[in-house]
Every structure is written in structure tokens, then in C-alpha cells.
Sequence to fold (278 residues):
Amino acid sequence: MSLIKERSLEVGKLKWFYREAQPQQETEKPPILFLHGLPSHSLCWCEVMEKVTERGWRAIAPDWIGSGFSAKPERRDFAYTPEAYSNAFEEFLAALEIEKFILVVQGYLSTVGLQYIFANPDRCDRVVILNAPLVSTAQLPWSMKQWGIPFVGDMLTQDPLLVDRTLEGGSGFRIADKNLDIYRKPFLQTSAVGRALMTTVRNLNLPKVTAQLEESFANWTKPTLIIWGSADSWLPEAPVENLAATHENIKLIKLPEAKHYPQEHWPEEVSQALLNFL
Fold:
């Protein structure tokens, strides 16, 4: 029987969908928040969540606004900018009455979570980062960049198979059909998820945001673990190696055969590294 429960929460005008796993015994440990990247949603963390919960940690993984089964408001109601995401995340934490937490992030929306904890360092005990754009040289792969192009992006982001191509292309391995069915479902339910994805890519402003992250890392002293899929064809490993080598608080663990989404196919290795770090 799965430890993970599916929940939803109304926060202001936004509905958040999230997955949560509670340990069998009450704990004073801070919860672990898992934040997904593009075009994924919280499903990608399920195996890792179960493993950390078995070891006594509460695990929470929301679908970002605009993704998965969370609300997908139109642009006039939600800007899909880093600032809008950060403010919504703050309200989500407040609604769950979470004051301190451990953050685990992956992918191209990880920048939002990292910006949030750099601005609110007292809220976060430790940080774990899986393949994410962390330096100013990081770029969106062309397959994602196209989602933000006028007219082209309108068509591409309405194709449910976009999820298959991106997640399997980025991970380098086949994803089980039962999971692909869940990943595709939001695209089959409403065109709003495609519009949200397109707007997010247009507003991500990756060069500016990653330059800010580089500056923030210079003053960041909290324990940080980077778990890196070394075979990632979208994000090079060398800048991350340099980041770890020049910061005593940052530890790097490499997964030689993993690519952009390590948690999809290497949950055992990711979970063990995470638990050892905690």
C-alpha cells in the first residue's frame, strides 16, 4: 500500500494539488518539500518520497501552479513569472503552516525554489539540488525554448505527447505507460495547461535569474547537496563541479549514467544520497 496520499488545498483563488507522505510516528524533523521541473509534476518524486518517509521524514510534493493537477489560471489572473511563482509558494507554505523545511528541487523551475530560499534563508535547513540551471551560462534546450515562440509554442504545447518526448528524451529511458498516462492527463483535460507552460517559458527569464543565483551562492552557507546526472545533454556538468569545488558547504554526488531527470530512473541512488546527507 502506498504511503503517498493525494491532496488539494485552496489558497486564495488558487487550487494546489500536492502529494504527501506521513511517517508512521510523529516527528519533530522538518518536512521535506520536493519541487518538480518542466514539464513534469509531483508524480516524479513518488518513489523517493516513499523511501524517505520509511525513514521517518514527512514528504510533500506540490504540482506547481499551471502544472499537473493544480490550478491553471489565465495570464490575467496569474503572471507565471518567477515573482508570481515565489509569492504563490509562500502562500502555499503558510496554508500548510510550514515554517522550516528541507528543500529538494530539480529542473528548470527549480530556480523559483532556490530564489525563495536564498531570499528566506531562515526557512530552510538544507538544500538538495538535482540537475538544474545554477549558473548564468545555463540555457533552455531548444526543445523547450520552442514552447515560448509565438504561434509555434501555441501548437507545440497543446500536444499531449510533448510530455512523452521531453521526459523520455531528457531522462534517456522509457517511462512506464501507467506514469505517462498520468503525466499526459492534464493536457488531455484542458488546453489551459499548454497555455500555462508556454507563458512560463516566455517569462522564465533564465539569464537574469541564473545570474542572481550565482551571486546568491557566493553568500550561501547552508549545507547543500547536488545530485547530478552526468549524462545530461541539456546542462553541462563542469560549472556544477566548479561550484562544489569552490564552496565548502556544497557536496556533489554524480550519477554517471543518469541524465536530466535522475529521480525518474535512479530513485534508489537519489534516495540513498539524500538520506545520507540528512
